[in-house]
Amino acid sequence: MDLTNRIVRYGELKRCRTAFIDAHTPGSDQKENFTIIGGGVSESAEQHVHITIPHGFNIGAAGQPPHCRNSLHSHRTAEVFFVLSGRWRFFWGRWGTAGEVILEPGDIFNIPTGIFRGFENVGTDYGMIMAVLGGDDAGGGVIWAPQVIEDAGAHGLVLGENGKLYDSKKGESLPDGVAPMPLLTDAELAEFPEPEARAVLPRQVARYLDLSAMADRAPVSVIGPDGCLPDRPGFEVSLLTRGSALTAPVTEDRPSVLMPVFGHWRVTWQGGEATLAPGDTMSVPEGLAHSVVPSITGEAGLYRVTGTQDPAGPTWHG
User: How far is Cα 145 from Cα 18, in angstroms, rounded to an integer?
Assistant: First the structure.
């Protein structure tokens, strides 16, 4: 079986720099967004989707130079990040001041639904984070903090109530019959929790070094009903290391996705094989027996995402 069209190489990712409403806002105008599997939540018609096959979840990525940030927003379904490269500060709350955490390569954050969140590259080099979004339609888009929409308007970008962006710098304007996206009211804003870091971090953040120690003999469940971060966001995430590689072929009844974070990994199936490097993404069809093992010596870590029958609903229970 030829799976070439189900492998997206890091070096072949097609970026979009106009994906969201803050694309012109100073401090956020150097972001690069990538939609790897599924339509994602991009607001731009310029966003390229690499794999359109439904998986029950979406895979995307964000690349940012140092000091570049992603503005405060919320989602109705799960948003899970792991750091591929760089050092990242994640912050949350109406103004981004309720709490924060610094994550390093391999660390993973299951961000609760229904809270405003943002992130910035606080490292010294270009960094990349990989994202898993719940549901095939990723929850119907992004909910922006009011100040983000206001700042964007001051720099030429308007978001229509249809979820599409219009750029006055390109001579675009809202079509007849399409109103601007309304700002959230005070009453609506009051519905967004402001959890402190002490409430979020133990339940929603897992460090790679801790996970890799637990995955020394068998894959460790990171996100799932029995995971280190117990949750049912519509998919499960596990970590494989050298000691817990899938040397014996496994088969899933739903598509799964392989995402190396450290080392090179050889995926083998009847009639083919492929070697994946950090930043590569591979979609494995349901029903296909396959093995997944490191191909060279050294540190080896790989996240595996599998869809479930659970609805891609809220993940904050504070």
Answer: 18
